[in-house]
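Hey, resending since the last one bounced:
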Amino acid sequence: MLTELAFPGLLVGGALAFEQLVAPSRVLFGQLSDARPLQGRHRVPYVVTGSILYCLIAVLSIPLIFFVGNAIATDNSRAFWGGATALCGLFALFGLAVGMATTPYLALVIDRTTEQERPRAVGIIWCMLTVGIIVGAICISITLRSVDGVTDPAVLQPALQRFMLQLAVVVTTLTVVACWGMEPRGGCRGGGNQNPEEEVMTLPRTWALLTSSRQTFVFFGFLVLFALGVFLQDPILESYGAEVFGLPISRSTILNALWGAGTLLGLLLAGFLITPRLGKMASSRLGCQLTTLSLALLFLAGCTGQVMVLQVVMVLFGFAAGIATNATLSLMLDLTLPEAAGTFVGAWALAQALSRALGKLMGGGLLDLGHAFIPEGWGASWLPPAFPAYGFVLFLEVLIMAAATWSLGAVRVHQFRGDTAGTLSKVLALELD
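The structure tokens again:
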């Protein structure tokens, strides 16, 4: 959309942001899977249905994207605004379908594991997610080599439509195979681990619990800054590789694989070595500091225009983000009361989803701002001509990540536990009365 079809960065970031802006719906899908089984099962039908829906929406996105691209090329403002609105709506539907699939999936993980097994299960899930990103990026790179350097929409659209259809068939098949036999008829909801105290929490009492400690807002703010610091580059990364480093489509998609490989290494190293030795808070601080440094290197890599430098930095960025993610997730579990786990995990998930949406919107918008106010080729003659606008976004991302590192110093786990535990006792006492 950005490089071949010349979409405004704000539109690309905004459309992608709509996927995350519907994140509160995940609470609804979780409740539906609890209360309304389909064909006698609470989780798997929602997972499969959601997956089929987001595959269908992904297929439908291709002609709509090229419709908007044609409106831009022909300067048809009416078609552009109509298509842009439809594109944002389609990405919102995509986010709803993803929520429908992923929330019951995570609930199924809880249903099928004991409290002792869940940390290992979560670790496996994150590692497999990262492996999936790497394998997916490599497969996409190999499949799309035939359109490297192609800018003609008449050639690009059928190639990408065919690719997306094939991808939808593969993803749907993998989902059905993976879910087969995972949930007996009648469901395994709760896994025998439901806490009756959680069932009596009403919305006003939930809000009272969330607002009972200043630490809730402090940690919420840290999560927003952290996710924003990591994902601000997300909507512009491949275009950064294309316009600043001259990478074709097949090679720019490999950047995600390099990032994923570094993240996997960081997750594993932090989980087995760094976090157990340094502790969660110290590991989180170290991860944030390393992520800030790697983002600064990503900025400096653009000054060189060297592809090899970019590739090495992407691995380092993923490695630092993996350490920070592992430590932050572990810290998040400490900032969660077992008696109200769903309440707090939902709040932390909402912070991440909203900040990712904001990151995608801001990433594209700031790139547009950079193009508008910083002339191409501005600066030293040895800089790549397209670098200043991208450098503007990355520089701000470094500052945001530095702010996240600073805000982490205000997080106090013991204070959080004392404040919220006392409020929970009062809430439950009122309910029992």
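Residues 77-112 form the longest helix (36 residues).

Sorry for the duplicate.
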